[in-house]
Amino acid sequence: MIAPLSWLKEYVEITLTSKELREKLTEVGLGCEKITKTSDDTIFELEITPNRPDLLSIIGVAREIAAMENKSIRYPEPKTTLKPSSHLPGGKLLPLIIKTDPEINPRFTGVIVSGIKIGESPKWLKDKLSKMGQRSVNNIVDITNFVMLELGNPIHAFDYDKIEGNIMIVSQAKGGERFESVDEIVYRLPKGAVVISDREKIIDLCGIKGGKNSGTYNNTRNIFIRVPVEVPNLIRRTSVSLGLRSEASSIFERGVNADGTIDALKRCVDLILEIAGGEVASNLYDIKSQEFKPWKLKLRKERLNQILGIEIPVKRLMEILSALNLSPILTRDVVEVTIPTYRNDLKIEEDLIEEVARIYGYNNFSKTIPIGEIPTNQIPYFKDYRLDEKVKNILKACGFSEIYTYSLIAEKDLIEGINSQNLLRVDNPVSRDFEYLRPTLKINLLKALSQNKSNFKKINLFELGKVYFGKNLDTATETYFLSGISNSKSFLEIKGLLEKVFEDFGVKEDPAKYIEILNSDVICFEFDFSEFTKRIKLNKKFIPLPKYPPIVEDLSIVTREDVKTADIIAEMKSQSSLIYNISLLDQYKNSRTFHIVYQHKERNLTLEEVSKTREKILKSLREKFQASFKQ
User: Which residues, 6 or more positions from 501, have their beta carbon under 8 angstroms from its beta carbon?
Assistant: First the structure.
């Protein structure tokens, strides 16, 4: 939400500096992402949480400032009564039939204005819209945008003369209908989209975009102004399906002020009559199946103090609730408040408690230690992250960098062997790039490798995260996988890395089967980490360091290339208890060099003992593997 300081000052007296105001807004939960100073103004860019659609308007932000500064707010006073003009030609009202369904359009408010003149907006209006990041179109469109930004109720103006048959029908699309928006983009509508049709065609995609065939242009003389209340989930579903967002849809999908349609319509008509001329040419249309009125809530002072852990004085409590425009009435230890319809987020007592704490200021709470007993029973969804950290540290020590990627992937990203028909799909994805739940981590690792190639020569990445299996919710399962990718390490290096992981976790298994060579430059590994953790054995026996020094030597032998190194080492170790450790030091074709450590636990070794053990090793290797000793 963009909020120019000059515009805010029209509704509430602000004496704070820009820095002080930013700190105050942040303290009450209204994050300020950026402040821009222009030649004549200061522009605040605010971060609005989804539960506060009232703050997607200048008047909403002004209310917040008035509440935290305990000041009154100045609302724009309407001049019009929305009654038809007595100067209409022939004294006749312009006819319009409206057919709507409260299930998909809870409130339909509007009026016809005739005899307007489309033209350029006045400078003050264009300046205000410009500061809000809006371009000027014409005076009618600019006024509807201005009132939406000011009061928070989206408004749309139709060219009355383009409404065939003087009829407007609100319904839901069957799916596949063609719709061309006012900005000349053609869409195929999804099933369930709320639309308005006249006798021949669709003229509006409700809550999202107006139609080109009913927009206001230079030759428009009569308009119908509509201020609706839409069903949030219907607007959200259509917006996501089409990938189409607008200021109006952002408000509607969060919940618009249902009792504010008349005020917004009056404000809009006032400005139209002032700027574009014309006269009210119909009775007020206000079709609804219920009354949208403020509701009551009760706040117990005892409950307030219990939840917050501090005691807020009654006087201060009443000041806060009054500043929030909640009209509090105190009866003994209970405060009854009246919730305005623009505060859809206040539904229960705890919501009121949060509001009081917000305005009181979290920084004013005393610092205390939490009371109560420390839980001893393990929660059902407990996960021991120490195991995760241990394996991550091993991979980092081996030169890998950890990444976190989205669990949702696009169909175009699927790798060979994976069919989208076998994956879990989101019914209403935010976009086609986030449509399926990933069945492997390799997909995102490959993308990360590709994206980093231009900046890094050697890339070694890993991820520990969830993957998902099944075609539907009945068969769906999720598990943790560990995957890695490299363009600089060999098969043996990756195998050694995994052997280290398996060894440190006490799992006896050949890790080679988890390694996949994708091409000459890229190698990848992946295994089921959840299954792996079920097999770990971390109960290790402590063996003290030997007191007596070892004798170390390197032994090179020549043998067939098909003889496994592990078999050679096992055969060598079996020859004597004096052999403390053997490791492969080097290998070239059929020649292998082993690093041998001889050691006795209770005394020093002699060279004669080592020589006899070496001869025994060589004899055994000659007999079993036809090996020869290399000087």
Answer: 391, 394, 395, 511
Domain presence at residue 244? yes
The pLDDT value given to residue 439: 92
Give yes or no: residues 97 and 53 share one domain.
Answer: no
Q: Tell whether the torsion through CA atoms of 481, 482, 487 and 492 is positive or negative.
A: negative
Take residue 317 and report the two structure tokens written for it.
């409590």
- Tell me: do 453 and 507 sit in the same domain: yes
Kindly give the residue spans of alpha helices, DSSP state H, lying in 108-257.
Answer: 123-131, 139-151, 232-242, 247-252
Cβ distance 449 to 487 under 8 Å?
yes
Contacts of 510 (CB under 8 A, 6+ apart): none
Instruction: Please count the other Cβ atoms lying within 10 Å of the Cβ belonging to residue 576.
Output: 15
The CATH number of residue 245's host domain is 3.50.40.10
Using DSSP's 3-state secondary structure scheme, residue 177 falls into coil
- How far apart are alpha carbons 118 and 276 in whole angstroms? 6
Does 376 reside within a domain?
A: no
Q: CA-to-CA distance for 35 and 21, rounded, in angstroms?
A: 11
User: Cα dist. 433→173, 407, 420 in Å?
Assistant: 25, 11, 13
The runs of H, that is alpha helices, within 374-525 are 385-397, 442-452, 491-504
Model pLDDT for residues 435-475, shown as the tens digit of each residue: 889 999 999 999 999 999 888 999 999 999 999 998 888 88
Residue 95 · residue 51 · CB < 8 Å: no
- The predicted-structure confidence for 408-435, as pLDDT tens digits, reads as follows 998 888 888 888 888 888 887 878 888 8
Answer yes or no: is 260 within a domain.
yes
SS3 state at 393: helix
Task: Tell me the C-alpha distance between 607 and 551, whole Å.
Answer: 8
The C-alpha atoms of residue 307 and residue 358 are separated, in whole angstroms, by 13
CA distance linking residue 346 with residue 325, whole number of Å: 12
Range of the domain at 397: 385-533
Give the separation between CA 91 and CA 94, rounded to whole angstroms. 10
Distance CA(197)–CA(209), nearest Å, equals 14
406 and 499, same domain (yes or no):
yes
Return the residue matching tokens 């020590």: 397
Does the model's pTM come out above 0.85? no
The residue among 576, 483, 586 whose CA lies nearest residue 532 is 483
Q: CA-CA distances (angstroms) from residue 435 to 235, 424, 449, 481, 554?
A: 19, 9, 22, 20, 57
Q: What are phi and psi of 516, to 5 degrees?
A: -130, 125
Which long-range contacts does 488-496 make (Cβ < 8 Å, 24+ apart)?
488/457, 488/458, 488/459, 488/460, 489/399, 489/460, 489/523, 490/523, 491/515, 491/517, 491/523, 494/523, 494/525
